Amino acid sequence: MKLANPLNYPIAVLIGGITLIVGIRFVRLPSVVMIPLSAGVATVGAVYFKSRKPESLGLENPQLERELQTVKERAINLAEKAQELRQEAGKLLTDAMQMELLIAVQYGCDRVVELPSKINDLARRLHGKDSLLSVTDLQQQLSEVEIKIKSSSGIAKKNLSQLVQSLERNIQLARQGEDVRQAQVINLSQLVEDSAGILQQLQNQMRTVDLSNVEQVHRLQDVSKELSSLQENAQILVES
Q1: Could you report the per-residue pLDDT of 209-227, keeping only the tens digit for each?
Q2: Which of the residue ranges 23-27, 34-38, 131-135, 232-236 would you say has the lowest mean pLDDT?
Q3: Other C-beta atoms lying within 10 Å of the C-beta of residue 24
Q4: Model pTM greater than 0.85?
Q5: In whole angstroms, what is the distance from residue 204 CA to residue 153 CA?
Q6: 199 CB-near residues (< 8 Å, 6+ apart)
Q7: DSSP 3-state assignment of 193?
Q8: 206, 220 in Cβ contact below 8 A?
Q9: Where does the pLDDT of residue 20 fall: very low under 50, low under 70, confident under 90, or very high at 90 and above?
Q10: Distance between first and last Cα of the chain
Q11: How far apart are CA 182 and CA 168, in angstroms?
């Protein structure tokens, strides 16, 4: 538990002051006891209020800070659900025929758990009110995605194609001299929401399909691969 300065939280100071007054005037405890006790109460209160306040991402743009903080909170909730699904998969998928599916589900869930740290990485890159994403960097990232598309198929190719559109749009904004940081956050937000939908779909199907049916197990593998594909795209986005 990290300590917090009570002076930064007036309500905590007020609670500490009330504790001091009540202790001395009504309970009639000596001040030598009540002063450190009330200080402790104020400190505990400050820690509580600090824990309820989202940690700043360090962006000078308040609107961008709020939007990215919202995406991060959503990602944290999603990461918790991914951890739960990972544990559930370990209990459900125990047959030898299901091991490949289990590995795919665990891999996808592990990538989702990494989302909050990826968002922190993006926040560090977006730090500074005048920071503009480089056209050169965006073009390099676009080239890497286009290379990946050539060796991809199905769901992964579809997701990469969507990422190409986002990067091309950001390149156009950057060429116009616009700050494309907000576009990056919007793109990441969409990836988080898409991941939430796929994660829910994976959980629902894993609970309802016939896990002894090879064809249905393969379909589940496709869903888990789509989840992994979205996380790989999120990684590309935070690095672009």
Answers
A1: 888 888 898 889 989 988 8
A2: 131-135
A3: 16
A4: no
A5: 25
A6: 78, 81, 82, 85, 108, 109, 112, 227
A7: helix
A8: yes
A9: confident
A10: 35
A11: 15
